[in-house]
Amino acid sequence: MAPLASTVAPPAPAAALKLAARAGRIAVSATAAMAIEAERLRAAGRDLVDFGVGEPDFPTPAHIQAAGVAALEAHFTKYTHTAGIAELKQAIVASHARDFGSSYLPAEALVTVGGKHALFNAISMLVDHGDEVIVPSPYWVSFCEQIRYAGGAPVIVPCDEAKRFALDFDALARAVTSRTKAVVLNSPCNPSGAVFSRDLFQAVLGLARQRGFWLISDECYSRFVYDGEPYSVGSEPASKERLVIAGSLSKTYAMTGWRIGFALAPEPLIRAMLNLQSHVTSNAASFAQKAAVAALTGTQQPVADMLAEYRRRREIMVAGLAAVPGVACWLPAGAFYAYPNVRRLLGRPGGPRSPMEFSTQLLHDAGVVTVPGEAFGTSEHVRFSYATSPSIIHAGLERFAAFCRTLLK
Ligand code: PLP
Fold first, then answer.
1. Which long-range contacts (CB under 8 A, 24 or more apart) does 198-205 make?
2. N or C: which end of the chain has fewer CB within 10 A?
3. 102 in ligand 1 pocket by Cβ < 6 Å?
4. Is 2 a residue whose pLDDT tops 90?
5. What is the pLDDT of residue 1?
6. Domain 62-298 has CATH 3.40.640.10
7. If you take atom 1 of ligand 1, which residue's CA is the nearest one?
8. Among the listed ranges 52-56, 169-173, 284-288, which one has the minimum average pLDDT value?
9. What confidence score (pLDDT) does residue 45 get?
């Protein structure tokens, strides 16, 4: 009898992995690429200052955590309705009405697994092959990937940096064609921190109704506005017909890991999104939904406290960045990111030629984690998150200033 080893077939040569075409339509984000490299350096014992992460450093407020724990202790751990529990849908529409003056019904709300999921559901159900979706730049990384995944084509309209990254309505209107299916607006904007005006939203909504496209409004940072009152286009009279709001509890309540977001939209679209969701994720985590009810219906003081702290950090971060020779930085009007222009530091002999090279060199030479502007569709910027402590901000700014001095030598 032949030895056993010889009867075992040799391993088949690795079959070439043939993924579906849609896999090729989405790219790994530069945000993720930078995070992976930072993780590698950290694992090797490198001391890093992290301005890369886009999440609050605050713990989830105690009363929200307690509601989640109470739900677990009460064995609220089974499936819920795919659209979310009734009391959460009610809390979503009531808190949106309280904060922004909108008037949605629970049937026009869908609880999703984070705001990203609300966007994915909406884009998947609206965008067909050949459709165009207008996205102002700089933009949040996932918009274009989700649009391409659905088979659509993002049409980029650059914001005006000289006007604090305001979006020019005429520029947007010029980009509308017969194939335009939607416009995605994210205000306050990640990464620029720009807050688009009410006039702009009203004008875009008017155009959407007139030309028959959708306005997808990403309100992930809507409560983090430094000047004036928070605003939602959902508060405009008769706004609903062509509007999808993607909301999130992640940043507002420091709940990134709980994965709760929501969509507000006309009922037929909500039903289509629900149908998709029922075949993909089903409901958002049951106990996290109970925590979300506590977040939306309980005291809003933690949100005010976090906003006050972000305001303080914003001053430190932006003053520090703007003081560095070669760096220009606007004071962002919302969210928790600074988006300085580093053009004057690029292209020097031996130095970085692009934001990607700049961020990579900054990480390796100075141990500062940032996200290069390529991730957000611009070619002269680097994103700094100030959702981190003032002492870390000071330490990182010192390293950053020293790094930039070496580039100017
Ligand atoms: N929209 C924007 C602009 C974001 O920056 C993020 C997260 O970084 C999201 C949506 C998604 O947030 P989540 O899925 O955690 O609710």
1. 198/231, 200/166, 200/167, 200/169, 201/231, 201/233, 201/236, 202/233, 202/236, 203/169, 204/169, 204/172, 204/233, 205/233, 205/236, 205/239, 205/242, 205/243
2. N
3. no
4. no
5. 34
6. yes
7. 220
8. 52-56
9. 95
